[in-house]
TrEMBL record:
GO terms, biological process: protein folding
Keyword entries, A-Z: ATP-binding, Chaperone, Cytoplasm, Nucleotide-binding
Top-level division of the source organism's lineage: Eukaryota
Gene for this chain: LOC107770838
Region (Disordered): 528-557
CC annotations in GO: chaperonin-containing T-complex
Main location (coarse class): cytoplasm
Family: Belongs to the TCP-1 chaperonin family.
Protein name: T-complex protein 1 subunit gamma
Length: 557
């Protein structure tokens, strides 16, 4: 009778799968618990020791998880979530981990009751579709050109960060920077490339209030010949090069055999003439500043300084691209291909200033810059690093609003509304999927519950009161004020979230939970290192005879 054997094997497989899923759920919950306390404005900070022995003090979910070195594959997958959220929308990195952890936590009960993971995932996917529909329903469209609204929004989004104590400063910097680099792409849409065209330059010293957004570019370079070249030029003509201003060297080792002494002189003269011609081709366009990514020889420096031209060499490619965007110049590969249209005339001022011990070049007051530099000042490097992380989040939020000008209520109000609506809809879900669907609805309450915990208020009373107000999907704007822990109207308190951030957090969290639930086995592909000679020990046992004793080799120490 083979049938009972098959049933037994199947149940054993299911049992093994259940064990793996429970282990994955436990790992995901452990990751969520690490950063649960960093959610909200009254959140705790974490001090991390990085691999090089440095210290990082932050409450940014992604920055914390990035430094963790976890062995469990499911935990690594959770860390990847936070990174995806950060790259995609730049905010909500903590929320997405807390939500994914809670989704897996509520699924554990169904795994124990022998529910098939596919059933749970189907219910979760249905819940996600309905949750996004609720988001669309309660979202409020805003005018991205209205500065006051933008300021309030960015402030509320970074209100949970360390720099919220400095008021409007970071929000102002973020809005100014994203407004400068925004490019119209047609159909009323704007594209904002934060990574490419906004450079954050951190200079220790001074006060945080001295931080500014420059209408142009700042680079950590001095002129080639400080005594001979001008350090301040108004309305400069700028030429940007991608080629070296020095004699061309051979691709590989070159040997030249000279028989007469005059030939050596001719050779040197040819080198000089080559550089002179190159400089002449540049000077033909009467530039004030020449900037190259490659080297610049002493002779070229002499010819340029003689003509009253300031030169800067060995600039980064990314910085050169930013200068081109700021002053309207075109980067040229060969000096003999220069045209008048390649010369940048958009900059209002070229100046080299000394800040602390270092020289910085400023190309500022540009007419219509499409790149900018945010200059951050502060007491210490740790403070500046944290301010930079917060600024990146703020700029991402500003970019999201420019791209998708829709808002949803913050303070856990959105999650409570979604939860209430899903609970209502769960009664119409048929079959076995009804219970996981309802569990997903309850899991959304993890965000307001965590906010209440971090405020230090009575969690049960607060959550009961909030659930009462949201009972029938009403009062969509009632949530928790993260500073005081009071139940308040988010519209009045101007506590908002970007629609793009919320939608992305919901999608990422639920999709990741489904992915981890559907794993029923973990197979390691890593070979374990064997001790020398350990592999031979697994072969057939060999019986030693008397004659073999003489042939024994000494084992080296």
């Amino acid at each position: 009778m083979p049938a009972p054997v098959l049933v037994l094997q199947d149940s054993m497989k299911r049992e093994q799968g259940g064990k793996v899923q429970r282990a994955n759920i436990q790992a995901a919950k452990a990751v969520a618990d690490i950063i649960r306390t960093t959610l909200g404005p009254r959140s705790m900070l974490k001090m991390l020791l990085d691999a090089s022995g440095g210290i990082v003090v932050t409450n940014d979910g992604n920055a914390i998880l990035r430094e963790l070195d976890l062995a469990h594959p499911a935990a690594k997958s959770m860390i990847e979530l936070s990174r995806t959220q950060d790259e995609e929308v730049g905010d909500g990195t903590t929320s997405v981990i807390v939500l994914a952890g809670e989704m897996l936590h509520v699924a554990e009960a169904f795994i124990d009751k022998k529910y098939h993971p596919t059933v749970i995932c189907r219910a979760y996917t249905k819940a996600l579709e309905d949750a996004v529909a609720v988001l669309d329903k309660i979202a409020m469209t805003v005018d991205a050109n209205d500065r006051a609204t933008m300021l309030g929004l960015v402030k509320s989004c970074i209100g949970t960060k360390f720099t919220s104590q400095f008021g409007d400063l970071i929000a102002d910097l973020a809005i100014n920077a994203t407004t400068i680099v925004g490019v119209e792409v047609g159909q009323g849409l704007r594209e904002v490339d934060i990574k490419k065209y906004i450079k954050v330059e951190k200079v220790p010293g001074g006060q945080l209030e001295d931080s500014v957004v420059l209408k142009g570019v700042m680079i950590n370079k001095d002129v080639v010949a400080p005594g001979k070249m001008k350090r301040k030029i108004v309305n400069p003509r700028i030429i940007l090069l991608d080629s070296p201003l020095e004699y061309k060297k051979g691709e590989n080792q070159t040997n030249a055999e000279l028989l007469r002494e005059e030939d050596w002189t001719v050779l040197l003269k040819m080198e000089e003439e080559y550089i002179e011609n190159m400089c002449a081709q540049i000077l033909k366009f009467k530039p004030d500043v020449v900037i190259t990514e490659k080297g610049l020889s002493d002779l070229a420096c002499h010819y340029l300084s003689k003509a009253g031209v300031t030169a800067i060499r060995r600039l980064r490619k990314t910085d050169n691209n930013r200068i081109a965007k700021a002053c309207g110049a075109v980067i040229v590969n060969r000096p003999d291909e220069l045209q008048e249209s390649d010369v940048g005339t958009g900059a209002g001022l070229f100046e080299v200033k000394k800040i602390g011990d270092e020289f910085f070049t400023f190309i500022v007051d540009c007419k219509d810059p499409k790149a900018c530099t945010v200059l951050l000042r502060g007491a210490s490097k740790d403070l500046l690093n944290e301010v930079e992380r917060n600024l990146q989040d703020a700029m991402s939020v500003a970019r999201n609003i420019i791209k998708h000008p829709k808002l949803v209520p913050g303070g856990g109000a959105t999650e409570l509304t979604v939860s209430a609506m899903l609970k209502q809809k769960s009664s119409s879900v048929e079959g076995i999927e009804k219970w996981p669907y309802e569990a997903a609805a309850i899991a959304f309450e993890a965000i307001p519950r965590t906010l209440a915990q971090n405020c230090g208020v009575n969690v049960i009373r607060t959550m009961t009161a909030l659930q009462g107000k949201h009972a029938n999907g009403e009062n969509a704007w009632i949530g928790i004020d993260g500073n005081t822990g009071e139940i308040a109207d988010m519209k009045e308190h101007k506590i908002w979230d970007s629609y793009a951030v919320k939608a992305q957090a919901f999608k990422t969290a639920i999709e990741a939970a489904c992915l981890l639930l559907r794993i029923d086995d973990i197979v390691s592909g890593i070979k374990k290192k064997q001790a020398p000679g350990a592999g031979q020990g697994q072969s057939k046992p060999k019986i030693e005879e008397e004659g073999d004793a003489d042939n024994d080799q000494l084992i080296p120490e």
